[in-house]
């Protein structure tokens, strides 16, 4: 467990949570793999991008600003995104969260740490070539306003310039679990499972297969 987490900024509400940041380029498969992790390991999936898109739909006062930034592939000010993440964590009964697509830049990272006091347990990093990510985004077909070639290129630039340094920051702290995400979905998930399976369970699984083959 990691904490303390003061979800509403008051000293009275303290929820201890365990957080895994899920990072990787646009289209690397973060959302796809998070759905599998939720099913197998009981985490709650919070996608920063999904929360921002829901905020646009809700007609909030920040909606137009968020929409314009997403269309330009830019990163929304941390204050806005952190509030949405805090609210989602606080309203959820679970204590294990996958935070997908956040922190996206140094400002996101430092502000989240300062406001919540949360250090991620580890960072799951989906490593994939730009060519493969571009192919996937152009086929995604979910009606996202930012899945057009012009915005995709801007998102890649922001990823290289602002998001990779955050991954490097956590790598220097020994917190990054890197996954080769260029393979088919099932193969990627096998690698992901190995990261989430406690070492004691891996020993049990190995001895069962030994007995089976006996
Ligand atoms: N390993 C894979 N092989 C082929 N296609 C994949 C793989 N993983 C995901 N996809 C497909 O690629 C597209 C992008 O995947 P997904 O939405 O999970 O990426 P993402 O990292 O969440 O992207 P974004 O940062 O834009 O939200 C989807 O259409 C998904 O079905
Ligand atoms: N921390 C974040 C996460 C996302 N956004 C904005 C900018 C992204 O291009 C867009 C889509 O995110 P995705 O669904 O691809 O993870 O949402 C942001 O500003 N800050
Ligand atoms: Mg996604």
TrEMBL record:
Residues annotated as binding CMP are 108
Cofactor binding note from Swiss-Prot or TrEMBL: Binds 1 Mg(2+) ion per monomer.
Amino acids binding a ribonucleoside 5'-phosphate = 53, 74-76, 101-104, 144, 155
Give the matching PROSITE patterns: ADENYLATE_KINASE
Q: Which CDD domains match?
A: ADK
Q: Has keyword Heme?
A: no
Cellular compartment(s)? Cytoplasm; Nucleus
**Quaternary structure and interacting proteins, as annotated:** Monomer.
| Pfam families documented for this protein | ADK
Cofactor (UniProt) = Mg(2+)
Q: Does the keyword rRNA-binding apply?
A: no
Catalysed reaction(s)? Answer: UMP + ATP = UDP + ADP; dCMP + ATP = dCDP + ADP; CMP + ATP = CDP + ADP
Give the UniProt keywords, A-Z. ATP-binding, Cytoplasm, Kinase, Nucleotide-binding, Nucleus, Pyrimidine biosynthesis, Transferase
Q: Which family does it belong to?
A: Belongs to the adenylate kinase family. UMP-CMP kinase subfamily.
Q: What is this protein called?
A: UMP-CMP kinase
The organism named in the record is Rehmannia glutinosa
């Amino acid at each position: 467990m990691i904490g303390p987490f003061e979800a509403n900024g008051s000293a009275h509400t303290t929820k201890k949570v365990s957080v895994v940041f899920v990072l990787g380029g646009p289209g690397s498969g973060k959302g796809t793999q998070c759905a599998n992790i939720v099913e197998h390991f009981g985490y709650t999936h919070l996608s920063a991008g999904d929360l921002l898109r829901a905020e646009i739909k809700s007609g909030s006062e920040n909606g137009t600003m968020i929409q314009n930034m997403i269309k330009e592939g830019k990163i929304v000010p941390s204050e806005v995104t952190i509030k949405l993440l805090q609210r989602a964590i606080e309203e959820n009964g679970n204590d294990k969260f996958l935070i997908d697509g956040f922190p996206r830049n140094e400002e996101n990272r430092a502000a989240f740490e300062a406001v919540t006091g949360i250090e991620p347990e580890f960072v799951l990093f989906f490593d994939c070539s730009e060519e493969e990510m571009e192919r996937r985004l152009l086929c995604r077909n979910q009606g996202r306003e930012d899945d057009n070639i012009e915005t995709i290129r801007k998102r890649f630039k922001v990823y290289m310039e602002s998001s990779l340094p955050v991954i490097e920051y956590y790598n220097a702290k020994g917190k990054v679990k890197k996954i080769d995400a260029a393979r088919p979905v099932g193969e990627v998930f096998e690698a992901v499972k190995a990261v989430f399976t406690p070492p004691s369970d891996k020993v049990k699984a190995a001895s069962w297969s030994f007995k089976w083959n006996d």
